[in-house]
Amino acid sequence: MKKVYYLKTCSTCVRILKELNLSSDFILQDIKTEEITVKQLEELKQLAGSYEALFSKKAKLYKEMDLKNQSLGERDFKHYILHHYTFLSRPVVVFNNEIFIGNSKLVVETAKKAIHNIESK
Question: Which domains occur in the chain, in start order?
Fold first, then answer.
């Protein structure tokens, strides 16, 4: 599978997509206009190992809802990600059976190397 979950209104996501220079066979899903489904989220969790790994603690709603002072479990992380797109750490790049979550330099570089090394063979 070659897919990216992102926000087209997020300048960081747009910049990362340009930097990754993805081939046309990647599917781009803007999670604001096409909400992530339970099935999609469960597939991402299988690759990531947990819902918490997919959860953004940088989200404005995380602070507004005072979630940092609550004890959240896997069920909570799943609920919040499905409840509002802002709770998914973005972008999420799925390439074959690898997943790259978030926008840190290391994640973006690792994704770029994996995508372009495999595709150029």
Answer: 2-102 (3.40.30.10)
